[in-house]
Structures are given as C-alpha cells and as structure tokens.
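Q: May I have one protein plus its fold?
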Amino acid sequence: MKTRGFTLIEVLVALAILAIALAAAARASGMSISTSDRLKQRLLASWTAQNRLAEHTARHAWPDIGSRSGEVEQGGIPMRWEENVSATPNTLFRRIEIVISPVAEPQYQAARLSGYLAAPQGAAQ
C-alpha cells in the first residue's frame, strides 16, 4: 500500500524557500521604515528652514551680515539651524542661506534654503 505525502527532503526544501522569502520581506520592511524616517526628517527640516525665512519676512527684519545658529524642535525632532546673511549688489536686498541639520547628525544637511530679504522702509543701507 502506497501512502501519499511529502518526504522529509521536500518539507525541508519548502521550509528553506519560505525562510529565504521571509528574510527578504523583513529586510525590505526595514529598509522601507528607514527610508520613511529619513524622508520625515527631510520634510521637517525643510519646514524648519521655511519657518526661519518666513520669520525674517514677517518681522520685516533686516539682519546684520554674518552667520548665526540655533536650535529648534520640529515634529519632536531637535534641529540645528545655521543662517548665513550676505550682501547683494543691490543694497536694498540681503541674501540669506539657511542650512538645517538634525542635532543627532550634525554632519548631515537635511535641508538647505536660500532666499532674499528686502530692506524695510527706512532701514539703513
């Protein structure tokens, strides 16, 4: 009488294939989560840079030429901002470049934004 079923070799091969497929799926999920975290970080850094420029514009600020830096929290992530204000050929405008880095990774520039500020009326040239 012949019994129907799988041999031990067939079961082991099936388990090996399943293990490889699950390992690949776990790796893909891990990479997806890592990419998602980096994109979130870049988006929050971009918002931080835009907020810095909007703050200067809203205050009608005429910042001094030079560099300054500080820290702010955006979406629960501490960010470090650095601003470099420089003169332009037109004395009624200043160029401002803002670089945002996560405090945890100061060498990584998550966002960079350049903009121009117009002199408020009556500002010294």
